[in-house]
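Ticket #4471: structure output looks truncated?

Reporter: J.K.
Steps to reproduce: submitted the chain below (418 residues) through the standard prediction queue, then opened the result file.
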Amino acid sequence: MTLCVPVPSTEDLVKIANKQDLLISPMDKYSNLPISKDICLATYVWIDGSGEDIRSKYRTLDFLPIKPKDKFTYLMDKMEESIRKETYLSMTYSQQSKYMPPYYCPKNFENFYRVECRLRATTNKNTFDENFQDLPILSFDGSTCGLAKPNNADMYLFPRAIYNDPFKRGNNILVMCDTYNYKLEPTRSNHRYKCAATYNKCKEQEPWFGMEQYFYLMNPTDLRPVGWPKGGYPQSSPLYYCGTGGDKIFGRELIDSHSRCCLYAGIPMWSTNPEVVPSQWQYRVGPSVGINAGDDAWMARFILKILAEQFGVSISFDPKPVAEWSTSAAGVNFSTLATRGENGISVIQKGIKKLAASHERHIKVYDAHGIADRSCSIRIPRIVAENKCGFLEDRRPASNSDPYQVIDALMRTVILNE
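Returned output as attached by the reporter:
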């Protein structure tokens, strides 16, 4: 007896596929719901009291913020700042009033002012400029974030940097913030405040940073690296680094998604590769200018953690998540106008001596440094030695270090000679 099995039509197969997709991703049923084009969901992101964990909340806005100028354009505009200031000072009082409050705002909370000699509209409800004056300052519960006591918990989020939202997309944005207490004083985990003040002293040197980030993909149920055998360890092998194959590499889809999400957000994602341990990865962000490097590095971490939620894994920035296996770091490539200029190698070597002498303010410094030597604490890449200019690589920071603190320390030591 022959059993006749009906062959499903193409239409039936499409219906089955759609049902399966809904089961895999329930959010698909709602992500395409039409939303007014005149509103925006702004996700505010900040660092909690641990100095390592990231929190977020979103606020619906009834206007569409426009991202500030990109970093390069901002640098080019700086060249005309002195001309704008001279123009402003030459104006009569009535002319100057067009550029003063409420139509002119401080550049940032630290009261560093920048003259904006251009006519601003008398109403500003539907626009956004690089002073962030249109984004609201939000409050949050500092007691649940390790920053305040329950009887005085309200704290404030100040918008600092805007990114495209790769998750909600459309008009929606991610906003990197720093935190302030009820007295409008920076909280103890707000290291951006000092870093921004330092950068304002170093702007003329145009410090560039490339931020490296190592991490492990972990199984959230047993907190062991993804793909590792239960109760055991993978075989030691040199084939994991930049390797290929399902027996060596785990989580590539998540990592590729992270790169694309960062690029969509506007974060300069430079490169990504698997590291020397199964489920250990590294990505590089940059080059970014000054304080922007810290913003980019923290937002890249936030995006990675949100993706990990969706892929069902967790991210460990712990420098040593598994004993006797490779550590994780957060190296920094650092350069200035002088190091990138002619014979910049001599400036780099002087900078390394400054770093060696400032061990109290840095995590750990070794006097030795070398060309293409990956065992030293400060490395001069081979291409820099050949070109006699470029950047140095500070290999000391741990993977869970605060990028703002690292950037601040480098600028203070190498540029400001502190």
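Triage note (M.O.): checked the attachment and the full token line is present. The mean pLDDT is 80.
Status: closed, working as intended.
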